[in-house]
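During data preparation, we tokenized the protein backbone, and the record follows.
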Amino acid sequence: MVRRTELPGSLTGLSRALRTREISPVEVTEALLARIESDGTNAFITVTAERAMEDARRAETEISAGAYRGPLHGVPVGIKDLVDTAGVRTTMASAFFEHHVPDRDAAVALRLRQAGSVLLGKTNTHEFAYGPTADRSFFGPTRNPHDPGRISGGSSGGSGAAVAAGLLYGAIGSDTGGSIRIPAALCGVAGMKPTFGRVGKGGVFPLAQTLDHVGPLTRTVEDNALFLSVLAGHDPMDPYSVDRPEEDFARDLDRGVWGAVVGVPTGFFFEHVEVEVEARVRQAVETLQSLGAEVREVEVPNVWETLHAQRLTLAAEAYAVHEERLRSDPDKFDDQGLERLLKGEELRAYRYANAQVRKLLSRREFEAVLEEVDVILAPSVPIPATEIGQRQISINGHAEAVYSALTRLTGPTNMNGLPSLSVPCGTTEAGLPVGLQLVGSAFDEATLYRFGHAYERAVGPAH
């Protein structure tokens, strides 16, 4: 059996070693299952040890026979527990679905299965994905690997924590107001919210259907590009899915950023940002500049209005998803989740209609800026991880609810659907990770990966 310290540090490295048969998927899976057994982050709701070993043995046989399926073949992964997995419990972290076992795979779960990956289990989430802390799950809070008394960020907290703790090599998350990028930032991993419609959502339990995105969390940017290349594609079961040709999202990783233009926003994205977080992000800007990128200050207009529209849309659509359960069995919800959901009943229809107009205007406003720069760079989250259960925070004297602070910088691109990548950019003095956010043009994830990889290569990977 391979000792844990001998496992490759990245999905990319593991994939290479598996393909050349330097290491066995069975050995890797056994080692990771042992890690999970002794881990204290509560990153998993269901561990699929038997299924994982079957997947690993199948991958080993196929690779040995020369039937290599691609970069995720034999790679151990996790799936957020609101994504349907045939024959594997899928709970939405809720008492309503504690024993629910789907009979078919979601589109993204099927893509991972067809890619030959090894499913280690279903990762923990905030109940019904309706919260950015991941500390309100029917199965208990997810804990940050860097400080178990603090949140992992959410709602895809189990996916972020599992990747950061070295329990697997990549995981699926979902993102409606930041739920991939927030745990990526707070746990110190890479997380991509792709362009709206890029990754199919068939079989993924909805939070807000016009805002929901599905994407990967991984240890490195290159890993993330490889993972998205498997997940992306048209899904006929998702009415919002876009039919585009397959892409290799890692194709531009080695181009560098010499002569490219980074837009650093004035105003919204750097307002009420914790001092150490801003310092790390500003240092990242300097690093990209040292690599030959031009840095320009840019103004993205009306972002506060876009954020308010996103939050209103989320509240209205989340209530619509749960209306029947709210009427028939409200006490079965987590009490904090119930309180948030019920606020959606009070919203007026004209405000929702106005919010949808703001969605279209926001896309135009961001795209106008992106005609002048290659990427927009900002903090992913304005604060480091807070304590589990904490609900209020002061940021440089600015009092704010934790939920509001965590989603403030990520929510706007859920509204306009543009791709956004969170990349680790150092830690605070207390050792808590910080993330930088790269925003790009629609369906231009490859450029975000190019910039993220250039930065990561310059400073060294976080893992």
The two ends are 23 Å apart (CA to CA). The domain at 9-231 is CATH 3.90.1300.10 (Amidase signature (AS) enzymes). The chain has two domains: 9-231, 256-306+347-444. The longest helix spans residues 303-328.
